[in-house]
Target: Endonuclease V
Amino acid sequence: MSQKFLEIQNELLPKVKLENIFKKDEIKLIAGVDLAYWDVNNTTHGTCCIVVIDYHTKEVIEKVYSYGEITIPYIPGFLAFRELPLIIDTVKKLINLPDLYMFDGNGYLHYRHMGIATHASFFLNKPTIGVAKSYLKIQGTDFMMPKNQAGAYTDININSEVYGRTLRTTKNVKPIFVSCGNWIDLHTSTEIVMNCINKESRLPIPVRLADLETHKVRKQLSHL
Model:
């Protein structure tokens, strides 16, 4: 299974473009995507929640979710294969199609540059950004802590290549880890993430709301 997954990742990687395929004023709707899991009778179930917001007003436009049994085991480095079926099912329920998707997870900041935000882009056909709460350590490389001010960042350089960015969205709060998914550059990814920060969380609004929805839905479904 891992060999097959690896071949698919290697096939997709040359198609990744870390450059904007859009004009910034074209971004009107942004979707936050997150998943949560639970076990019932030795069977793993999952839910994917997507929350679409208006990028300019930050108003919630739509919320959808899907759930089901998870048949792909967790294999480090191949998380996208486990999550994609539910993500695709959930996207199909959207009435308002986003201009950009923001994932609770990594994109280019991945062992083979194929985190969920990057891999999923090929099925969504939209620009994507990865936003992770914790650091994925690659080749023993640690991140450098940015200055203690909102908007401060340090690039994550591994073997002279920039994989992503450690971004402090709020003063006196732990940083997050931003990486391009696909069809967007790192500067624009950082700018869009910062434009979606409010006083309620270090996470951008779409990701935070999707994260809250997954906890709510998981609580409801796991008690059925």
Summary: The first strand starts at residue 29 and ends at 40. The chain has one domain: 2-221. The first helix runs from residue 2 to 12.
